[in-house]
Write a structure and sequence with these properties.
eight-stranded mixed β-sheet, VC0802-like, binds adenosine-5'-diphosphate, 618 residues, binds aspartic acid, single chain, 15 helices, 15-stranded mixed β-sheet, Carbamate kinase, binds magnesium ion, alpha+beta, 28% strand
């Protein structure tokens, strides 16, 4: 007999008819000899309806009252599903988050789980009952006298389910939903999406954080940290679904479940060399030709960074293994010469036209004396202060950051190789990692041989913020991102560019990043004073952007993945506004009105389409 946690999403319990179907399915699982805990979401879109009710009363509802309101949605579905089970003769009992002992932080509307005390739940299971638990909610203190109802953030029922599976030591956790499994991308946007046979936790963490709404990223984080087998499958069929594979996890305390240790690894790569093309034209196709030429030489590229444009030019920097520097540099120079040639003939054609902001000639810069230092850990998702802490730690150690690139679960900084020891010592101390735990920068998951690209995701809820001319000295990034963290603003995709400008005799670089659109104006206001102290230009905000990403743990071993993605965008005349990469993903920022076209182009470029369209219920 195994203990199984099954979670049913909103569509799956969207009507009384569907609730009865879910009850049948749960009863069948019990009849197969299992103990079952069921976690359910609110019916259909009822959480959205509750949000709309609040908005009709006030623009600025208190978050405590919002939680009080939103948590009611799940209470409707747990009681109805329990009635449906009882009507089938299956003993069952519904329980709220508080009743099953889910204790969270006091942050309303986005609380993280601190601990779970499942004794009451276990007692009910031992009496042969199915326990039906309200997802998405908890209580802010273990003390019944003063507890508050909290919610975990939209989509949080997945997190409730996996957290309960971890606390109960369940055999596995099933996320039952309206699609047959995890697909190569969102089938609502790309009907040709096909189902993945399996995916690693690291890949799924990236996909979920980059916009694949099928799983809440925090659910994947808990599954990874506690080694919980997790499967996403259809609520209506017996098809096997898609397993999210995790490495076996060592014993881990249930205390501080979602807050302990945001960083669990520090990586150092001394074998990197950097190449930057400065002032290349900001138009579709440039990145594609550069990385196409590099791929033709079969040279693997590691980090790729393209920051914000300046005038009508851009910089693209990337790193390769040091032994490949010569070849990669020659390729970059050849492209640079071709671009300069094109530019000269372009300028000749337009000799009589005024060209404001016309770019200077491009040039190629290389540096073999760099090291990449990275912090990695699933716990940094949505936790604003972690990147800031890294930058502060490097600044305190007097280490200047030359380039920054982030993914959802990793922040990498390029630093001078002579400063790398100091950088690592400082980071190990800051994040309490023993230097013996230093992880080599190797493929993110060696469980299976992963394909170069597993899936593609789109995030349209981000805004791009750019700060030009930040003084190029230790501590600047730390100050900026610490301040944002103090305002609880989560930052994504931080990019510090290669371009270095002298402003009034001071060397400066640009820093660009993305935040949730809802936070962009707050970020601008929060930074205004600091930026004027630093003598930087104003912060530019662009909300008309979308982030399209490809994810695959196998891409590090294969040359040409970036080139293929950039070419697919260039073929559709889609300009790339910013690029950031990690070992397992490449993200490009594009104009929002080209978002879906970009997603489809990239999905097609990697041959991810299936034979049959996936049916998506209304
Ligand atoms: P639930 O209510 O069951 O939690 P969600 O709406 O949160 O369901 O998640 C399922 C939906 O996620 C699917 O209907 C699909 O439109 C969307 N989706 C986005 N990206 C993916 C993906 N990569 N694989 C599967 N579904 C995806
Ligand atoms: N009902 C909540 C929401 O709509 C939680 C969930 O469905 O996961 O966000
Ligand atoms: Mg969901």
């Amino acid at each position: 007999m195994a203990l199984v946690v099954q979670k049913y999403g909103g569509t799956s319990v969207g009507s009384t008819e569907r609730i009865r179907q879910v009850a049948q399915r749960v009863a069948k699982t019990v009849a197969e000899g299992h103990q079952v805990v069921v976690v359910v979401s609110a019916m259909g879109k009822s959480t959205d309806d509750l949000v709309a009710l609040a908005a009709a009363i006030t623009d600025n509802p208190s978050t405590r009252e919002l939680d009080m309101l939103l948590s009611t949605g799940e209470q409707v579905s747990i009681s109805l599903l329990t009635m449906a089970l009882q009507a089938l003769g299956q003993p069952a009992r519904s329980m709220t988050g508080a009743q099953v002992g889910i204790v969270t932080e006091a942050h309303h509307t986005r609380a993280r789980i601190l601990s779970i005390n499942p004794e009451r739940l276990r007692a009910a299971l031992d009496q042969g009952e199915v326990v039906v638990v309200a997802g998405f909610q908890g209580m802010s203190s273990g003390n019944a006298a003063d507890f508050e109802i909290t919610t975990l953030g939209r989509g949080g029922s997945d997190t409730s389910a996996v957290a309960l599976a971890a606390a109960l030591g369940a055999h596995h956790c099933e996320i039952c939903t309206d699609v047959p499994g995890i697909l190569t991308t969102d089938p609502r946007l790309v009907p040709e999406a096909s189902q993945m046979a399996e995916v690693t936790c690291d890949e799924m963490l990236e996909l979920a954080s980059l916009g694949a709404s099928v799983l809440h990223p925090r659910a994947v984080e808990i599954a990874r940290n506690y080694g919980i087998p997790l499967v996403v499958r259809s609520s209506w069929t017996d098809q096997p679904g898609t397993w999210v594979r995790s490495r076996p996890a060592g014993p881990r305390s249930l205390e501080g479940m979602e807050i302990a240790r945001p960083v669990d690894g520090i990586e150092l790569d001394l074998n990197q060399a950097k190449i930057a093309l400065l002032q290349v034209p900001d138009r579709p196709g440039v990145a594609a030709s550069l990385f196409g030429a590099i791929a033709e030489q079969s040279l693997p590229v590691d980090l790729i960074i393209q920051s914000i444009y300046e005038g009508n030019a851009n910089d693209i920097a990337f790193t390769v293994q040091r032994e490949n520097l010569g070849e990669a540099e020659a390729t970059a120079i050849a492209l640079y010469e071709q671009l300069s040639q094109e530019q000269r003939s372009h300028q000749e054609q337009r000799a009589h036209q005024e060209q404001p902001g016309s770019p200077a000639q491009p040039s190629v810069v290389t540096d073999a004396r760099i090291a990449k230092v990275s912090i990695a850990g699933a716990g940094m998702i949505g936790r604003p202060g972690v990147a800031a802490q890294m930058f502060q730690s490097l600044s305190d150690a007097g280490v200047n950051i030359q380039m920054i690139s982030t993914s959802e679960v990793k922040v990498s900084c390029l630093v001078d190789v002579d400063q790398s020891d100091r950088a690592i010592t400082a980071l190990c101390k800051t994040f309490d990692i023993h230097s013996s735990n230093l992880a080599p920068a190797e493929p993110a998951d060696s469980l299976v041989t992963p394909p170069p690209v597993r899936g593609v995701a789109l995030d349209r809820a981000q805004a791009q913020l750019a700060i030009r001319h930040v003084p190029d000295r230790p501590g600047m990034a730390a100050r900026i991102f610490t301040l944002l963290a103090q305002h609880q603003i989560s930052v994504d995709m931080i990019i510090q560019s290669q371009r270095c400008r002298q402003i009034n005799g001071i060397a400066t670089r640009d820093i660009a990043f993305t935040t949730a659109q809802a936070d962009a104006l707050r970020a601008q206001a929060a930074l205004a004073e600091l930026l004027s102290q630093m003598g930087c230009a104003e912060l530019e905000v662009n909300s008309q952007v979308a982030k399209v990403s490809v994810v695959g743990a196998g891409m590090v071993q294969v040359a040409g993945v970036a080139a293929r993605m950039f070419q697919a965008l260039a073929d559709r005349q889609i300009n790339i506004q910013m690029i950031a990469t990690s070992e397992i993903k490449i993200s490009c920022l594009v104009a929002d009105d080209q978002a879906v076209a970009a997603l489809r182009a990239v999905h097609a470029a990697f041959d991810l389409a299936g034979d049959r369209a996936i049916e998506v219920p209304a």
